[in-house]
Design a protein that fits this description.
The protein is built from two helices and two strands; from the N terminus they run αβαβ. By secondary structure, the protein is an alpha+beta fold. It has one domain (15-52). It has a two-stranded parallel sheet. The longest helix is centred in the last third of the chain and has 9 residues, at 38-46. The protein starts with 14 loop residues before the first helix and ends with a strand.
């Protein structure tokens, strides 16, 4: 397991789920956070975002 990796769960009451729900579809996002990139991958795949890491 990577140091910054955590389970990404849309039903969770945490910051990743909050951000995932708050960002609208078809917008641009610059992902500069640490982590495994799960949020960026979700946004790119499910909300058709142009995610840059």
């Amino acid at each position: 397991m990577k140091i910054y990796q955590r389970n990404f769960n849309l039903s969770a009451n945490d910051s990743l789920a909050y951000i995932a729900h708050a960002i609208e579809s078809n917008v641009r996002v610059l992902d500069v956070g640490c982590g495994a990139g799960d949020l960026g991958a979700y946004l790119r795949n499910e909300k058709q975002l142009l995610a840059q890491a």
